[in-house]
Design a protein that fits this description.
Blueprint: H1 2-13, E1 19-23, E2 25-27, E3 30-37, E4 40-46, E5 53-56, H2 57-65, E6 74-81, E7 87-100, E8 103-113, E9 121-122, H3 124-127, E10 133-136, E11 139-143, E12 151-152, E13 155-156, E14 177-181, E15 200-206, E16 211-219, H4 227-246, E17 251-252, E18 256-260, E19 264-271, E20 275-282, H5 283-287, H6 291-295, H7 299-304, H8 308-330, E21 335-342, E22 345-353, H9 360-378, H10 382-390, E23 395-404, E24 409-418, H11 419-423, H12 431-437
Parallel strand pairs: 4-9, 5-8, 22-23
Antiparallel strand pairs: 1-11, 2-3, 3-4, 3-7, 6-7, 7-8, 10-11, 12-13, 14-15, 15-16, 16-20, 17-18, 18-19, 19-20, 21-22, 23-24
């Protein structure tokens, strides 16, 4: 039994999506971490007590020489106190990209320390963008649910219009919304959707100066042949790009799709067969239904675009494809994992072969452990949970078939979690909480 549980633990330890572990170096009481600043490798001191990322004059001059920093990245001169109490001069800058072991942080506030040999510090302006972190010896453990909800296309959604260089007094003529182009705000167009060359890229503020929307718009000229075919091709390619980054859409239709979480709504739609709109909205703005007034798309038109049954079928198909792709990567010669939809239930099927003799009690224990780990993978947060609830399955079924003693004896176990119990399940959850709601 211990051997079987060890196999299960090893399998799922390699598939824990919620964490990323980065090895740091420890020397003389200091942790250092390798990063890339605008593509240039640098080693930083990991300093949770520092407010900003800071680099020395040496690194700054090199980045300027390589064209990786320019005048648009420089914000202001600052004074700060160093460890010995002395007041030093520095320069506030924006670093377009910091790559920490594959985690990309965009538009990070930093300081140039006006000393040639000043240490490189990775401070809170970068660390806070990583999300939930903890230190385990020389390992940095990052929860993958980082604060992507506070950033889109490298734009910090917590910033207001004055943070980005404008003053509300300059916008008195605007009645309701204040749309400002990326170029005017010195926002880079080098983002994950840049290949589509949008005609319009704007940040939209309300009269209080708060960001209420980011709008990208791609228009096909009237004289272009096969316009409808081309616009749908662009739309579908953008759907794939966004899905790869934000997982499956909350709603997916032929001409309109929505990705939604507790914090934001990302919408994509075709307008008049000649333009595609990408609209990113913080969730409090979604509640106020501001987006139809800006892009001219009425709420009724979006609701009428398709029937609920078709939406559920498409969502189920997308979900099962994603699940099986993940389970296939976990399978091996002696371990087979797959999912299917049967009688309005979502079934997770697990077939494990071991050399030892097996019995019914072992199958039940193993199935409980697997059920928890399956839930841990696919119900990573409340947004993922909502997607599965929207599929309207009656139950989530866990089938275990355990074959042992050189495949001569076989036992099985079947358990389920009802939709009602899943609705009441708080995410994140413990293994004991999952066991308590498992039914035979």
């Amino acid at each position: 039994m211990r051997k079987l549980l060890l196999i299960i633990i090893i399998l799922f330890s390699n598939y824990t999506f919620s964490q990323k572990v980065i090895q740091m170096n420890y020397e003389n009481g200091i942790y250092t971490i390798p990063c890339k600043v605008n593509g240039i490798p640098m080693t930083f001191i990991f300093d949770t007590g520092a407010s900003d990322v800071s680099i020395s004059l040496t690194e700054a001059k090199f980045l300027f020489k390589q064209g990786l920093l320019d005048q648009s990245d420089i914000k202001e001169k600052v004074k700060y106190k160093i460890a010995n109490g002395k007041i030093e001069e520095g320069t506030k800058i924006i670093i377009k990209e910091i790559n920490i072991d594959g985690i990309i942080l965009n538009n990070v506030e930093a300081s140039i320390v006006h000393q040639l040999d000043a240490p490189l510090l990775l401070g809170q302006s970068a660390i806070s963008k990583l999300g939930s972190i903890k230190l385990d010896g020389d390992k940095l453990i990052i929860n993958s649910e980082k604060n992507v909800n506070l950033e889109f296309l490298g734009i910090d959604l917590t910033k207001n219009i004055e943070d980005l260089g404008f003053y509300l007094d300059d916008t008195k003529e605007v009645e309701k919304f204040i749309p400002i182009d990326f170029e005017t705000l010195n926002i880079s167009k080098n983002h994950f959707l840049e290949e589509f060359n949008f005609n319009i890229q704007r940040v939209i503020f309300n009269k209080q100066g708060k960001i209420v929307m980011i709008l990208l718009q791609k228009t096909i000229s009237n004289n272009k042949s096969n316009k409808e075919e081309n616009i749908k091709k662009i739309y579908n390619t953008i759907v794939d790009k966004i899905t790869n980054r934000y997982w499956i859409p909350e709603q997916k239709r032929e001409r309109a799709s929505v990705w939604e979480s507790n914090y934001l709504q990302l919408g994509l739609n075709i307008e008049d067969n000649e333009r595609v709109n990408v609209v990113y909205t913080p969730k409090d703005m979604v509640a106020n239904k501001l987006h139809p007034e800006i892009i001219g798309e009425s709420e009724n038109e979006l609701k009428a675009s398709n029937k609920k049954d078709k939406f559920i079928d498409e969502l189920r198909e997308t979900s099962i494809n994603f699940i099986n792709k993940t389970l296939l990567e976990m399978s091996s010669g002696n371990h087979r994992w797959f999912a299917r939809i049967l009688e309005n239930n979502l079934e997770f099927n697990n077939e494990i072969k071991i050399d030892n003799t097996v019995n019914q009690k072992e199958a039940v224990t193993a199935n409980k452990s697997i059920a928890y780990n399956i839930m841990r993978i696919f119900f990573l947060n409340n947004e993922f949970k909502k997607i599965f609830l929207d599929c309207e399955f009656d139950n989530f079924v866990f089938n275990m078939q355990l074959t042992g003693n050189k495949y001569n004896n076989r036992v099985s176990s079947k358990m389920k979690i009802s939709k009602e119990n899943l609705e009441n399940l708080y995410v994140p959850f413990t293994e004991n909480e999952i066991i308590q709601i498992l039914e035979k």
